[in-house]
Design brief:
about 325 residues; alpha+beta; six-stranded antiparallel beta sheet; two-stranded antiparallel sheet; 13 helices
Length: about 325
């Protein structure tokens, strides 16, 4: 939870931060020294006694669910994450339609976590596996509180959204590339549907749902933590491992052999459903859909990253998918 101080160009952002600071000053008994925005609805807050991460939620139910879940994790033995804290405040923190929770601040290591090294990739998936082992023991308690992880439906929706964006996408990518991506997605979804039973079989765990590198935090002592449980759901562990594979493949040159070096993933590489799912261009569709929704294509850095993901890695990804198809013959 490294604090980042972005340039606040829009006056509206500055005004909101000023109002929020004034509100927190009126509610905390501790003297507030610093309030720094990290990302939307997440703030670094330093007082004369403590340091917190303040996170906003649209509903009180979502906040209470996060508090309960992290508390259960800790009680069941998963200590490599944060807890929600209860600082001395005058009343429940609610400001301009947002409920705020106070999260334990974990001082970060000077070297941030990334998927660039095999050591980090191995350590990250081992931590994710530990998370699954712990949540398997209590997921039944959360079945009425959390949605089921429905990957086929989620990726079908993502496919249709990407398809609806085609008139816009053609300004950035040549049609043959787009057509190939849609072909990969169609082939993948058809294979997953054919093997739907794989995604429904128990035992279930609580899935993290967002295993991006920024949700793995190495503290100053070097211990790795798993953070941010906004997208937790109920499902089979392989759904998180599929997402993990999708996240790390660009860092291992889309190598099937290097992917199979991770034992937590290797055990699924004989499963047809898993192989079909590996071919789905989830990252390409996700990033283009987001960029068009947020109109962030004017951001040259983001645009370059998405173009590299889509076109720069196109042929190595195609080789990877061709290998999967040969496996399934």
């Amino acid at each position: 939870m490294k604090a980042i101080n972005p340039s606040m160009n829009r006056k509206g952002d500055d005004d909101y931060l000023d109002r929020l600071l004034s509100y927190f000053q009126s509610q905390f008994y501790e003297k507030i020294i610093q309030l720094v925005p990290i990302r939307k609805s997440v703030f670094f807050l330093k007082t004369d006694k403590n340091t917190y991460i303040i996170k906003g939620y649209h509903t009180n139910r979502r906040l209470r669910l996060q508090e309960a879940f992290t508390d259960t994790l800790r009680k069941e033995g998963f200590t490599k994450t944060y807890l929600f804290l209860t600082p001395a405040v005058k009343e429940e923190l609610f400001f301009e339609g947002t409920y705020f929770g106070c999260i334990e601040y974990i001082p970060p290591n000077k070297t941030g976590f990334s998927f660039h090294t095999q050591k980090n990739r191995q350590e990250g998936i081992e931590l994710l596996n530990q998370f699954h082992q712990i949540t398997a023991s209590f997921e039944v308690r959360y079945r009425r509180l959390l949605p089921k992880g429905q990957l086929i439906e989620k990726w079908t929706d993502r496919f249709y959204l990407f398809s609806n964006n085609l008139p816009f996408l053609k300004y950035f990518m040549n049609e043959p590339f787009i057509s190939e991506m849609l072909t990969w997605a169609n082939w993948s979804l058809e294979g997953m549907e054919k093997n739907r039973r794989f995604f429904l079989r128990e035992p279930f765990v609580i899935l993290h749902g967002d295993v991006a590198h920024h949700n793995f935090l190495r503290d100053k002592e070097g211990k790795l933590h798993l953070i941010d449980f906004d997208l937790i759901s109920i499902g089979i562990p392989s759904l998180d491992f599929l997402q993990y594979a999708n996240r790390i493949l660009p860092y291992i040159d889309w190598s099937f052999e290097r992917l199979s070096s991770l034992k937590q993933i290797r055990k699924y590489l004989h499963e047809e459903a898993f192989l079909y799912a590996l071919a789905y261009p989830a990252d390409i569709f996700r990033e283009w859909n987001r960029m068009i929704r947020e109109k962030s294509y004017h951001d040259h850095v983001k645009f370059k990253q998405v173009m590299d993901l889509s076109i720069g890695q196109f042929y190595t990804r195609k080789k990877f998918i061709d290998h999967i198809k040969n496996q399934l013959i």
